[in-house]
Every structure is written in C-alpha cells, then in structure tokens.
Amino acid sequence: MKAKLDELAARLEKLLLLGNFDAKKQALAYLKTQSEAPGLWQDQTKAKTILKQLTDLQTEVDNLQQLQDKINSAREIVDAVSEADLNQLETELAKLEKIKWLSGPYDRGGAIISIHSGQGGTEAMDWTAMLKRMYLRYAERKNWKSLMGIILQKNKLY
Fold it and tell me: 3-class DSSP state for residue 156?
C-alpha cells in the first residue's frame, strides 16, 4: 500500500514538474490582478479572454492542488487508506495526466467535422447519418457545444 502511494506521489510530482505548476500559480495570480483592474470591461473581448483563461487555469490549479493534498494526507495515514481510496486517487491522477498531454495551444479550440457519403447510394447515406448521430451524441455527453451546418441529402438542401 505504501509503495503504491509512493508511486502515485512520484507520478504527481512528475506531472507538476512537466506541467510547470509553479509558473501556472504565478500566471493565475497575474490573471487575478488583471481581472480586478478597473478598466477591464472597456474592451469586452479582452475581458472575456482574460476571464476564460482565469477560470481554465483556476480549475487546473485547483484540481492539481486537491490531488496533491489527498495524496499527502493519504501518505500520512497509510494504515487507514483503503484499496478503493487508492484506486480513486489513481483514477484522478490518470485523468489529470491525460489533461496535461492534451493542453497544447490548439487543444482547447473547436473542431470542424465534415462527413461525406461519397459513392454507395442509400447505404452510404445511412452510414453517414449514423456517424453524424454518433458524433453529436458524443459531443452531448462531453457537454460540448455543437452546431449543425448545411446538410445536403439526395440533392435537397435542408
């Protein structure tokens, strides 16, 4: 049990180091001071950008800090930690590691998906409709905004 906690702590330390945790804390403090500036809302697009960055960074820093606190407290009381608690900590850490690897400059942006049935007649169009439904449901489950564009089916525009 202690070895598992030590492994989780080492993975978290690596994640904090690779994710520039200290730099993110400094950036968060800077964004907080910017968000409290009196003339913030004179430029609304800039204000929205700053507040979006602030909330995203605040969420990331809070998640990392909470996990770090949980692992540290679990290491202090090793005997009282159950296997379920360890599994939950490992799941949370894996989730944060995944978020770290998908934290590039374009990973927070949107995507444009275009589905074409091509050759194949009715079966190809049915398959395209199933794919469209699958992608929309996936976006719905992830709480992503989705917008349908132009649908052209059998030379009819919908």
Answer: strand
The CA-atom distances, in angstroms, between 20 and each of 60, 64, 105 are 12, 11, 15
Q: Give the pLDDT score at 130.
A: 93
Q: Are 11 and 81 in contact (CB under 8 A)?
A: no
Tell me which residue range forms the domain holding 48: 2-101
Cβ-based neighbours of 97, under 8 Å, separated by 6 or more: 11, 15
Q: Is residue 133 part of a domain?
A: yes
Q: Give the per-residue pLDDT at 131.
A: 94
**C-alpha–C-alpha distance, residues 92 and 119, integer Å:** 45
Token pair 């949980």 is found at 70
Residues ≥6 apart with Cβ < 8 Å to 60 = 24, 99
Give domain status of residue 109, yes or no: no
